[in-house]
Amino acid sequence: MTTWRLGDPLPWLPARAGRTAPRLRVIVDNDFSGDPDGLVQLAHHVLSPSVDVRAVIGSRPAPEPQHEGTDQAAAAVARARELLAVMGVEAAGRLVTGSAVTMRDATSPLPSDGARRIVAEAMRDDVDTPLFVACGAGLTSIASALLIQPAIADRLTLVWIGGAEHPGLAAAPHGAPAVEYNQSIDPVAAQVVFDSALPLWQVPRDRYRQCLVSDAELRRRVGSQGTVGAFLHDAIAALVEARRRDGELLAETYALGDSPLVLLTALQSYFDRDDAANAFVTMPRPRLDAVGRYVPNPDGAAIRVYTRIETRLMFEDLFAKLADLAEWQAAAPRS
Does the keyword Transmembrane apply (predicted)? Predict the structure, then answer.
């Protein structure tokens, strides 16, 4: 297979369409051994020429019986490495492991390789591109990085897929737990982040649940796109099949809920660089109580809470980039 290095220009793009320097840096932090939507997000970010993916952190998902006794952060790194190998990407030391455990209290960081990489990248003075941490899982690594080096709060923006619906903005779905899944992975870490002044863009549960694709789209627009598309499609299909064996009834849609991490970073607007395709409100950041519920905090730092996600742009860009890669891999000479 012909390979290419993470951080190099995408070899299939013409010079005018992606051979210039990226506009921003991204650290990806996700639980790749859990829901396959994180693998889709990682592939999409790696295929986006406007971002320099500086690190990929493998984080633990919420504990499940089948994971007992295994290091799920290490498993997440292994799964990400598997995807990048199928893509032909040489990661060159950019894959790092987050903590295998959660924070005990709000003052004791867990100095994992992932947390240390965030600090090191944030504190660099030799770059002029903004840094985003794109997190689709628990907040252990970024919270620990904040406690290790509080100065990073002035040097990066966190984009987080997680948290429950905000009162007055949206209602929780019927039967949903009070504490949203990603927040439940490490509730203490979420408290640390919400109590900080770190710039935070939040895509809460009501928004990421709307990032739906149909089975037909997954089959025709993802699974048909070479080995990478088949890998992503099969990962989702395997999870759906496992749930079917557990008695769940058939649905025709799947939520690629981590994909807004790409939309809000790589797909920012050309003019007045920021997010122009989506809608959000900016408000004082609430605190999180011991249960994980929002507590109003009028003096809290600002938080950007997304109220609309532009799924057409997000998914059509994903489908097109997978097609570009598949076409290049099919035409490239075998090495």
Answer: no
Q: Torsions phi, psi of 108, nearest 5?
A: -115, 100
pTM of the prediction? Answer: 0.95
- Cite the DSSP H helix spans in 149-212: 181-185, 187-194, 205-208
Long-range contacts, 277-286 (Cβ 8 Å, 24+)? 277/310, 277/313, 278/306, 278/308, 278/309, 278/310, 279/306, 279/307, 279/308, 280/201, 280/304, 280/305, 280/306, 280/307, 280/308, 281/169, 281/305, 281/307, 283/166, 285/194, 285/200, 286/166, 286/194
Which distant-in-sequence residues (6+ apart) come within 8 Å of 247 by Cβ? none
Instruction: Give residue 174's pLDDT.
Output: 87
- Count CB-CB contacts under 10 A for residue 42: 26
Backbone dihedral angles phi then psi of residue 26, each to the nearest 5 degrees: -135, 135
CA dihedral 255, 258, 259, 261 (to 10 degrees): 160
Domain 4-331 fold: Inosine-uridine Nucleoside N-ribohydrolase; Chain A (3.90.245)
Which residue ranges make up each domain of the chain?
4-331
CB 116 within 8 A of CB 37: no
User: How remote is the C-alpha of 85 from its chain's centroid?
Assistant: 19
Mean pLDDT, contiguous 10-residue spans, the chain (335 residues): 88 71 95 96 97 97 70 95 97 94 96 97 95 98 98 98 96 90 96 98 97 97 98 96 84 96 95 87 96 94 98 98 96 73
Q: What is the structure's pLDDT at 245? A: 85
Q: Which 8-state DSSP code applies to residue 183?
A: H
Strand order in the sheet with 24-30: 95-97, 51-58, 24-30, 131-135, 157-161, 200-203, 302-308, 279-284
